Amino acid sequence: MKYFLLLIKWLGDNMKSLLIIEDDPMFPTLIERVLGKEFVCTVAPTYADAARELKKQSFDLVWCDLRLPDSHQDLTLGLVKGLAGTAAIVVCTGVVQDISSIHADAVSRKPITPESIASLASEAMANARKKIPLERTVDSITALTSASFLPIP
Question: How far is CA 130 from the centre of its chain?
């Protein structure tokens, strides 16, 4: 029994985390059903909930609907990009006319199938690994601006 409990704790500590930003209660249920074995899922049905969760912890994957009851699509995507750090970002929405204008690791229109949920998550995770981590970028900028040959404004 002791080893079983240790295994459960180890699995929980080593599972990836997923934030689902979605106000339709059926959609997070579908995502959790498909990705729940790989990810510990947290649901944020509003912009305010999403901001609170993103400030509270880091996530490996953020699945985001752009149309929330308390936000505009540009504001929602800005929040996610600003607070998600190196997390992979999937945008799945039914409101955007030009889906190619959304800059995320994976983008799709609703409605969506369980098969496409799994492939979008994989695509986003693969694309996110190619990104330069924000912390490294900030460190590089700080180092450059503090160099002795640059004037300090």
Answer: 15
